[in-house]
Amino acid sequence: MSEKILKEIKVRVWKQKNSTAKGKFETYTVHNISTDTSFLEMLDILNMQLVEEGKEPIVFDHDCREGICGTCSLFINGRAHGPDDDITTCQLHMRKFKDGETITVEPFRVGAFPVIKDLMVDRTAFEKILQAGGFVSVNTGGIPDGNAIPISYDDAEAAMDAASCIGCGACVATCKNSSAMLFVSAKVSHLARLPQGKIEASRRAKAMVAKMDELGFGNCSNTGACEVECPKGISIANIATLNREYLMAKIKD
Amino acid sequence: MTQINSKIPEGPLTEKWSKHKAKIKVVSPANKRKLEIIVVGTGLAGASAAASLAELGYNVKAFCYQDSPRRAHSIAAQGGINAAKNYQNDNDSVYRLFYDTIKGGDYRAREANVYRLAEVSGSIIDQCVAQGVPFAREYGGVLSNRSFGGVLVSRTFYARGQTGQQLLIGAYSALNRQIGAGTVKMYARHEMLDIVKIDGKARGIIARDMVSGEIKRFGAHAVVIASGGYGNVFFLSTNAMGCNGGAAWQAYKRGAFMSNPCFVQIHPTCIPVHGEQQSKLTLMSESLRNDGRIWVPKKKEDAEKLQKGLIGPNDIAEEDRDFYLERRYPAYGNLVPRDVASRAAKERCDAGFGVNNTGLAVYLDFKYSIERLGKDVIEARYGNLFQMYEKITDVDPYKEPMQIYPAIHYTMGGTWVDYNLMTSVPGLYAIGEANFSDHGANRLGASALMQGLADGYFVLPYTIGDYLANEIQVPKININAPEFENAINEVKGRLDKLMNIKGTKPADYFHKKLGKVMWDYVGMSRNEAGLKTAIKEIADIKAEFWKDLRVPGIQGEVNQELEKAGRVADFIELADLMARDALAREESCGGHFREESVTDDGEAKRNDEAGTYVSAWEYKGENQEPLMHKEELKFENIELAQRSYK
C-alpha cells in the first residue's frame, strides 16, 4: 500500500441531459487524489466540488462498490470498466493512472441500453431477456432434500463459473455488434449444467434468444472481445453451449 | 398507551409454529386473485417474498431503488448460509442451531421466532438447490459445508465467496418468472417515500420515480417492508452506497415501532480505512477465519516499526506474534462471534499494537493454512476474496497477511414485528434485515441469508394470509382517497423543502459528519457521557443540515443529490434514536458495549435483571421525545448464562 498523491487529473466526461438530448464532452479538473482512492471515489470528490461550485454533478450508476452488484458501468479511456483486468469500475483504483493524465469517461454505448442521463444507461433489456426464460420453473415449497440429486463437483463448478455473471453489460458495450450472446449464454449454461435446470433447457434457450433478437441486440461474430472485458471472466465457451442448446431445441421443433 | 402483543403462540417451543400454522386463516385461490400486496425492496427477503406471494396467486407490486432487483445488497454477502441439515453427522440439529443463535445474540432475541427460523432453515437449502443455485459440492456429489464464528459444527452452505449473489440470483430468477407471467409488476428505480394508512391500516405507498422525478401513488391490501438495514448511518460501512433506512423510517413516522436500534453489528474482518477520500468499506468474509489466523506483534517496538513502514509482517519471528484470539478464547479461537472478535481487535489496537500506518489494523494470516493445505486449496476456497483484496490494497495476500479492522456491517435492530412479522401498524409487515426479530444483540455469520429467505419463502406467505383473510371484502384500494392526497402533498412538501434550502454544502458533507459522531460515540464502545454528547451533536448537525444543504438541479428529473439528501435527513433522525436506545440500555450485550458494564476480565457484562427486553420506540411527532415501550423477553427453554467462548 504505497500511497502516492496525484496532483492533478483532468476528467473528460460525457454529459447528456436526458435520453433525447444531444450529449457532449466536458472537462473538469481534480487535485490531490490519493492513488489508494478508487476511481468512483475520485468522481465523488469531483461531484462534491461541483455542488459546492453551484454546478450540477455528474450522474453515474454505482452501488455496492465491491464489484458484485453490477450497477456500475462506464467506458474509461476506451475500455469497459477501465484500464485493469477482471474488475468492475468500482474496483478500479487511481494507482492505474498517471499524474496529469486526462481520463475520458463515457457511458456504455449500446442501442438497447439508452442513456438516461450523463453516464447512466437503461439496461432493462437484460431484465426482459431473463424474464423470458432465465429461471427454473419451480414454486416455493414441496421440494425434495437438497442432497436427493447428487451433482458432480465439475458440473457444480462449471455452473458456478457461468452463474458468476453480474449483468453489468460490459460484454455488450465492448462488442462491435452490441451482441448480448455472452450474457445470455452464461445464464443458459449455468442452468443447463445442473439437473434441475436441464429439464427445460431447450425451452429456455429458445425463449431467451428470441427475446434478445426482439430487443435489437446484434449477432455474435466470434471476436471474443466480450470475454476479455468481462469483469467476472465468463468464458466465450458458454456461447458454444448456448448454440448447442438452441440448435437442439430447433431440431426438436 | 399502545399495547405490545408479540402474539407468540402458546404451547411447547417445538410445536409453536406447526400449531400456529394449523390455526391461522387461509385465503382461497379465487380471493387471492383479488388482493394486492406491495413489497418494498428486492433483496433476499423482498424477492423471495414477492415471488412466493405471486406464486400463491396474489397480485404483487415490487419496488427497488436499484435499476434491477438483482442488484440489492444481499448480493454482496460472501461466506454462506446456515441450515440445520446435519449433513456432516457432527450432531447438529434444529435445537442446536436455535441454541447457537440465541446464545450468539447474547440472549436478546425471542425464543419462538428463532426456533422457527431454525426449523425452516433446511427447506431453504432444498428450495435454492431446486432453483439452480450452484452450491459447493463434494466429489461424491453431495453438498459441502464449512464452519462459521460462534458455532462448533459445520452447517454453513456456500457458493465460493459469492453465496449471497447466488442465493439472490435464485430468488431473482423466481421473481423474474413471476414478472414474466404478469403476476408481479416490477418498479425498479423507484424509491418509497411514504406509507399511506386508511382507517389505521396500511393501504399503499408513495414512491418517487427516480428517472422522471414523478411522485406516484400505489395502493394495496397489505404492504411489506423489505428494505434492509440502516448501517449507512455511519457513512462508512460495508453496505452499498444506496442502502438506506428511508422505508423503515417512514414506517416509524406512520406508527410502526422501531426496536433495538442501538444493536449494530461491527464486522471484525474488513479492509481498513485508507484515508479521508474513502466512500465505503469492503468486507472480507468471515469464512476466511476458518483458515486464517489473526495476530498482532507481541512487542510494541515491532508494532511501531510496522506502523512506520520500517519492517513488514514477514520480518516478525514466530515467537513474537500474538495470536490474541487463540490466546484469549482457546475453545473457539479465531472463530469467536463477530462482536467478540471486533472488540478484541480494537483492544489490541487501542493498546498500541495495530499494524498499519494508522495503527488501526491487525493481521489475518494464511501462511499457516497454505503450508498445511497448499496454495491451490486456499485459492479454490477464497480465490475471489483474495483477488478482491489485492485489487483494493495492491498487496498479494498469498504472500503477505491481510490487514483487517472492524467496520459497521449489519443492523440487528429494526422495525418491531410480532410473531406474524406484522408491525404495530395493521397490514404493514417487515421482513429480513429490516425487522428486529431473530438476531438479538449480535448476529451469527451466515444467518442473515438464512433469515431473509426464511421470512420471504416460508414465514410471510403463511402469516400474511391470516390478515388478508379478513380483507377479502375490501375492493381495490382507491388511490385518489384523501389519505393518498395528503401523503403525496407531504412528500412533495418535504422534497421542495430540501430543494429550497439553497445552502452551500452537499448532502455527503453532513453524512460524513454524522458518521464520525456515530462511530466515535455510538460505535464499538459506548458510555453515558459520550451518548449524551452524540445526541447533542446530532441535533446540531440536523439544524445545520436544514439551514445549509445544497441540492442542485431540479426535482423532476434524475437527481442523485436529492436522493442522497432525503436519505441523509432520515439518517440524522435515526441516529438520534440509536443514541437514545443505547443510552437507555444500561448493560453490555452483543454488539452493544457499554463501558460501564464489563466483567473483571474485560468482557461484555449483561444485566439480565434489567436488560431482557426489546425496546419498541413510538414516534410522537416532530421534535417530540419518542416513547419507549418494552417487550419483556421470556426464556422458557434456555437458561441465561454469561456467554463464554473460552
Please write out the topology.
The complex is a heterodimer of chains A (253) and B (646).
Chain A: E1 5-15, E2 24-34, H1 39-52, E3 75-76, E4 79-80, E5 102-106, E6 115-117, E7 120-121, H2 124-133, H3 153-163, H4 170-174, H5 181-192, H6 195-198, H7 201-214, H8 225-229, H9 237-252
Parallel strand pairs in A: 1-5
Antiparallel strand pairs in A: 1-2, 3-4, 3-5, 6-7
Helix pairs in contact in A: 2-7, 3-5, 5-7, 5-9, 7-9
Chain B: H1 16-23, H2 29-32, E1 36-40, H3 44-56, E2 59-63, E3 81-82, H4 94-104, H5 111-131, E4 156-157, H6 163-181, E5 184-187, E6 190-198, E7 201-209, E8 215-219, E9 222-225, H7 246-253, E10 258-259, E11 264-270, E12 293-297, H8 300-307, E13 321-322, H9 324-328, H10 338-350, E14 362-365, H11 367-373, H12 375-393, E15 402-411, E16 414-415, E17 428-430, H13 448-468, H14 482-500, H15 507-521, H16 528-548, H17 560-584, H18 608-611, E18 613-618, E19 627-632
Parallel strand pairs in B: 1-2, 1-9, 2-5, 9-17
Antiparallel strand pairs in B: 3-4, 6-7, 7-8, 10-16, 10-18, 11-15, 12-13, 12-14, 14-15, 18-19
Task: Report on this structure.
The complex is a heterodimer of chains A (253) and B (646). With 253 residues, chain A is α+β, with helices and mostly antiparallel strands. Chain A has two domains: 5-116, Ubiquitin-like (UB roll); 124-137 and 147-252, Fumarate Reductase Iron-sulfur Protein, Chain B, domain 2 (Orthogonal Bundle). Chain A has helices spanning 39-52, 124-133, 153-163, 170-174, 181-192, 195-198, 201-214, 225-229, 237-252; strands at residues 5-15, 24-34, 75-76, 79-80, 102-106, 115-117, 120-121. A five-stranded mixed β-sheet of chain A has the order 2-1-5-3-4. In chain A, strands 6-7 form a two-stranded antiparallel ribbon. In chain A, a hairpin with an 8-residue loop joins strand 1 and strand 2 (24-34). The longest helix of chain A has 16 residues, at 237-252. The N and C termini of chain A lie far apart (59 Å). Chain B has 646 residues and is of the alpha+beta class. Among the domains of chain B are: 268-408, Succinate dehydrogenase/fumarate reductase flavoprotein, catalytic domain (Flavocytochrome C3, Chain A, domain 1, Alpha-Beta Complex); 482-608, Methane Monooxygenase Hydroxylase, Chain G, domain 1, CATH 1.20.58.100. In chain B, 37% of the residues lie in helices and 14% in strands. Chain B is built from 18 helices and 19 strands. In chain B, the strands form five sheets. Chain B has a five-stranded parallel β-sheet with strand order 5-2-1-9-17, with helices on both faces. In chain B, strands 11-15-14-12-13 form a five-stranded antiparallel β-sheet. The longest helix of chain B is centred in the last third of the chain and has 25 residues, at 560-584. At the A-B interface, helix 1, helix 2 and helix 3 of A face helix 3, helix 5, helix 6, helix 12 and helix 13 of B.
